[in-house]
Amino acid sequence: MSAPRVVLVDDHGLFRSGVRAELGRQVEVVGEADDVQPAIDLIGELLPDVVLLDVHLPGGGGQAVVQAVKASHPEVRFLALSASDAPEDVIAVIRAGARGYVTKTISTAELADAVRRVAAGDAVFSHRLAGFVLDAFAAAAPQTPNDVKPSFDPELDQLTGREREVLRLIAQGYTYKEIAKELFISVKTVESHVSSVLRKLQLSTRHQLTRWAAERRLA
Amino acid sequence: MDNPARWHRDQFPHRGPSWLRHRNGHGGPLRRDPADRLGGGVAAGIAAWRGFSPTTVRIVFVLATLVSAGWGLPLYVLAWLFIPAIGADANIFSKARTDAGGIRLAVGLASLLIFVLLVAGALNGGWFISWAWPQVFSIAGLALIWRNGSEEDQGTLRHLLEPLGVATDDVKPNRRSALRLVIAGALMAGGLGWLFSAHASLALLRPLGGVLLVIAAIVLALGPWWLRIARDLALERQAKARAEERVDIASRVHDSVLQTLALIQRRADDPQKVIQLARMQERELRSWLFEGRDPDEAGEELTVAAGVRKIQEDVESRYGVPVEAVTVGDCDLDDNLTALLAAAGEATVNAAKWSGAGVISLFAEVEAGEVSIVVRDRGKGFDPEAVPEDRKGLAESVHGRMTRRGGTAVVTTAPGEGTKVTLKMPRSSLPQRGGLGGSPPRDDPGGSGGMGSPRNKRAGRT
Question: If exposure means fewest CB atoms within 10 Å of the residue's CB, which of B122, B180, B319, B333 is most exposed?
């Protein structure tokens, strides 16, 4: 497999050059942008495999970039990257269409691995994102029978037991390989569980889920 | 100056007897307070000095001005000139003394007004002229303030002079404001004519009508501008509040972030210490920015999430091993959950001390029926069978703490494969915070233990 072509979008030049230097040999960094509009233009022009996207950008959140690019180039994949981890921002970027989320403290090897995974069409969940998602779906579960606002597809509103198990193990810092071993399933199955969680997270119309992030701050 | 009321508001209490002193006054030197001003901040300054509310001072001053036939305005201007603002070491007058151009302008404007008043008085005077005479001093004083005052003073004057600018080329009058001014002019002329002619009349109603017309004219002509002044002052105060917030953030960044960066530079040769410092700073900033908690606050462990954070902080700062903590849901603590947290704390400390792992995962999940905490490391692990009898203190204390309260503790480990401690504690029927109910039944809670792994063994190490 050839090295994935990557565009870096981050408003900190220092961080961009750091990532570029570290990732240099393992992926091909084809461009850098520091704000929403330049990023949209650059991505449309270069059509990279993966965009490493900072959640926080001066000209609007990272989700603005995802939405704009997804409209015209749905094949471009996004991996969100952030130092902040405010859950509402992270969930917003994922729901906009990013295929994963990792923290900026991630090691270089893990980051390169995450980029390759996203390039291959998989979802990448950091331990923190897994925690957010478990929390979000627990909060989004109907609290009383009357509270139910059925989604188009009710399947989307709940995680299966297996999916919750996988997420718990991710939150405990397990790698996909370790999860596969722990649950006696294949790595492919782990990946499909994670992708399914990502799909539910993006497609669920349960309004509690969208509200969750905002309310979490007040709780 | 066509807005005497505003100008007059602020003078009287300054002239009042000095025993009139409220207990709240600061009693220090009298200073103008530009932060709470309508004009020069004189009323606010007096209010703070004497301990009254600024509004009271202003109202008293307006009444006094009405009685004294307009002498309040020049007195206010003089106070503006001679009382230094808070934080300034000199008053405006000391600067104005050396400003020859300003003095010429002041004298020129004053003499112009004197000339106009003389002419007007020769034609027909009455109360209007007697009110206007004191303003000779006002206009001279204002000219000096205009020339020599601070930015803020000049800004205020610019606001106050704005309606005069409307008549000239300063602001292009649009149709509505032109219409407004025409109607106001007509009302004013009618009212003044009515008033002046009233001297010859015995009818009591007619002067009253004239006064009403003049007031209507003034309100119509100047109303929008008054509103704008009030709004601008409010905006200015907001800007000040924002600036203060910025200062607060800057001092926070200085106190914690810059200090930590300085420490990191000095300890650059000790990677362990650098990581520890960076983690500590990260945690502190995160809790301040995203959870609104002040890091200086004493950390009251009232909920599971707070307790987990506390374990993370303690272990990171005492052992320098990063702890990746994830909490799902939250609830208040009771005795059982306090015991659970204590057990989790011991397990985490144990992992930090013995496993040699670079990072420890700490995962807590609050569900409707139970709370589980998983402490996991990828360190060297151990053979549970081989733990010497005299080192079973941890097993006893973690396991004992949990089982005494109806919980369970499962340790999964093997040499070279890391260690995982899974703790579960059933919940009493306390209402839950966040993530309430509705979680689907789990086939394998915690995803550990009980899966038939031969390595599962209740044990521990110290």
Answer: B122
